[in-house]
UniProtKB/TrEMBL annotation:
Belongs to the ABC transporter superfamily. This is Putative branched chain amino acid ABC transporter, ATP-binding protein. InterPro entries: AAA+_ATPase (IPR003593), ABC_transporter-like_ATP-bd (IPR003439), ABC_transptr_urea_ATP-bd_UrtE (IPR017780), BCAA_Transport_ATP-bd_LivF (IPR052156), P-loop_NTPase (IPR027417). One of its GO terms (biological process) is L-amino acid transport. Residues 6-235 form the ABC transporter domain. One of its GO terms (molecular function) is ATP hydrolysis activity. Signal peptide: none annotated.
Length: 235
């Protein structure tokens, strides 16, 4: 059994006939904590969306737990254990926090409707706000709700698109600590698309840098040098 959890082999993907990703090769191992870096518009979100099945792969293959899932629809990928927390959080504003959380069950296809107690260990703030409408939470609280909702289906991997965007620093720190705990205590593999280099360095053990739809650099986060940052990430 290979250690790799997720493999992208020579993946080209995009919107309709327009490719955004070109020949992407990427291997993510079980338990990895990965940051995906790059300037705006280089294909980071498209890469996440291609993994969860919202963007069609026109060439190459996607292998998850040694199974080729390239042709699987999104719901099937969710049930296999891939959770996607999109940019902008996509909380349903008029639903209560509790009902937003329960939406996480639908992704797993499980019939259980009890919120696991560990959700409130990771996110104690949510417990106090269960009856509140999701739209009344602060941005940081909504982000925590979105991550908690992703956890509800007990995923093997979580894909997060810019979870710190527009969030106050104290909550950013909380999100970092919680993601580390989820990774450490539950063994969930995490891929985070991130703009903040400091956050990426503190959070992740590995990094990938994208430019013009391809992976141009990768390695341990300790190898994320200032010259790489300057070359590919500074605007």
């Amino acid at each position: 059994m290979s250690m790799s959890l997720l493999e992208l082999n020579n993946v080209t993907a995009g919107y309709g006939q327009t490719p955004v990703l070109f020949n992407v090769d990427m291997t993510i191992n079980k338990g990895d904590m990965v940051c995906l870096l790059g300037r705006n518009g280089v294909g980071k979100t498209t890469l996440l969306r291609s993994i969860i099945g919202l963007n069609k792969i026109s060439q190459g293959s996607l292998v998850f737990q040694d199974k080729n899932i390239t042709k699987f629809p999104t719901y099937k990928r969710s049930r296999y254990g891939i959770a996607y927390i999109p940019q902008g959080r996509e909380i349903i504003p008029y639903l209560s926090v509790l009902d937003n959380l329960k939406l996480g069950f639908s992704a797993s296809g499980k019939s259980s409707k009890r919120i696991p107690s560990e959700i409130f260990e990771f996110f104690p703030m949510l417990k106090e706000h269960l009856p509140r409408q999701g739209g009344l939470l602060s941005g940081g609280q909504q982000q925590q709700l979105a991550i908690a909702r992703g956890l509800m289906c007990n995923p093997k991997i979580m894909l997060l698109d810019e979870p710190t965007e527009g969030i106050q620093p104290s909550i950013v720190q909380e999100i970092e600590d919680t993601l580390k705990r989820i990774n450490r205590e539950k063994g969930i593999t995490v891929i985070v698309v991130e703009q903040k280099i400091d956050f990426a360095r503190q959070l992740a053990q590995k990094f990938f840098i994208m430019d013009k739809g391809s992976i141009v650099a990768q390695g341990q986060t300790s190898e994320l040098t200032d010259s790489l940052v300057h070359r590919y990430l500074t605007v």
